[in-house]
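Components:
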Amino acid sequence: MAKILVSVQADQFTDDQIKRLEAVLRRNYAEHVTDTKVTVIWCVVPQGQFYTNYKLSRSSLISMECEPGFPQDRREQLLHACGSDWAAITGQDQNEVMLTLLEQELFNTAFSSTRDRLTAAGRIRFLWHTISSLVSSKVRKGYLSFSPNM
Amino acid sequence: MPFYTLACRRPLPQNTRERIANAVTDTHCSVTQAPPEFVNVAFMDGHPVRDGKDIGVIGNVRSGGNRDASLLEKLQQEIHRNVAAAAEQNEESISVRLIGVPASWIMEGGEILPEPGSEDAWLERQHGEKTKLNG
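Structure:
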């Protein structure tokens, strides 16, 4: 199973936009990387907590994973396709969209780094917070999302 | 990229967040010579950071190019010192970890990011596109 982690700002996009964005990420991933099962997780950052270039940010960060040695030309095709589709749905400038396709080991290092910097009890709390948020979001909104605040 | 996340034990006042975001951006740019357009800083509240720290910083930064081990070590030390100063806390209450990401695995502004130290042509193209769009 592959993971896609997306960080966006609270109230930046409607639920409908998020579902359409998730659909194009899944479609492009299946077309350019692999048609394995994909889990898309939305990290929704509360307003006032995200800065880019000294200012409160309107940027979106999309991080995807792939097998080691994934061909660079296919990586670029995927990132271009996702970037274009993302901009078409959101109207964002491409400068406000950062996309990465990381090999699994690095993806997992980055993915788990948030948890690894916590105390043992903090990791359990973070896991509980994340899982309960994801389940609640899936039921209420139809996609997996959580706030990074605990 | 870079993308710095700061896990904070308690929510920080907005002006402190702003001061820290500015310090991280200033530090990253002065040490690496990267342009500030690349620098993202996010805060996360309510995180019990290990070893009794109040703030745990993780920086996902481009690796390769002109960034050797000594430059990354200097970046880590400077981020550590300047985040502590901006947060008005002891350096002992802050932890910093950097994770290197190859530039060719990242796209921003519709283009694969340049190797560290080779940003001029990329920025010229980016600013040229902006001028065309605005013109």
